[in-house]
Amino acid sequence: MNRPMVPLAKCVEGAIVTYHRLRRWARQEIHPYHLLSTTAGRAFLCSAFLWLGLVSYCSRSYARDPTSAFFNPDRGYERIYSLHRQHQAETFVQAANTTPVGLPTDGNSSKGHSGKSPNMCIGVATVERPTEQYIRPAFGSLIEGLSSEDRNQLHTIVLIAHTDPQQHPVYREPWLAKLSDQVLLYDSAQKEQFDDLKKMEEEKDYRRKAIFDYTYLLNKCVDT
Fold it and tell me: Which of 156, 207, 209, 206 is nearest to 186 (CA)?
């Protein structure tokens, strides 16, 4: 069965009429109250406010989550807790300095484990820094806030990694002998090792010296 052919002129005319109707509709100003008067308008407004609210909530709640699409590097990398913890550690160390003690020596111990065998040994090597001495907040953050029971399970060793310990500013600070269980020097190193250490310091061979320091600390922890 043959379909009647629609004249081309009528198709063009219909397209032109539709175009002008759309233009007139686009130029009409829709009053906000018109949206509220219809079910579709109210649904659209509710959906829009809900979407904006969810975006705002997620932007605040997940800005620090690096796996989120709402991650904000400016907020995500803020040192909020780190600065708080650093302040706690530095305050803890400063408080310990109010009670003077003698200079530490190799093997000096104020045993946090009360003579009992500790469950863990923590060794920290430190060298003099040009400006800030990182050992203060680093060590303070290790033990600040620990209960007596938790502290008694630890044996802490601080290695003053200088052949001349007087070069390190914290060597004369009271907190060092008071808070650490053992202040380790190179006194127990053999003469050949000691001479080799002095040579590494003179040549600034930090890589070899770091390996020696870590090995030296680990051996002392094994002996604990």
Answer: 209
What phi and psi values does residue 79 have, to the nearest 5 degrees? -90, 70
pLDDT range class, residue 34, cuts 50, 70, 90: low
Residue with tokens 């320091």: 213
Judge contact between 136 and 89, C-beta under 8 A. Answer: yes
Query: Nearest to residue 124, comparing CAs of 183, 204, 187?
Result: 183
Q: Are 41 and 35 in contact (CB under 8 A)?
A: yes
| Burial of 104: CB neighbours in 10 Å, binned 0-12, 13-18, 19+ | buried
Mean pLDDT highest for which of 17-21, 50-54, 138-142? 138-142
Spatial separation of the C-alpha atoms in residues 201 and 212, rounded to whole Å = 12
Would the pTM count as exceeding 0.70?
no
| Residues 182 and 107: beta-carbon distance below 8 Å | yes
What whole-number distance in Å separates Cα of residue 138 and Cα of residue 179?
13
- Find the mean pLDDT for residues 151-155: 91
Rounded distance between C-alpha atoms, residue 96 and residue 105, angstroms: 18
Reading phi first (left if > 0) and then psi (alpha if -120 to 50, else beta), residue 18 is in: alpha
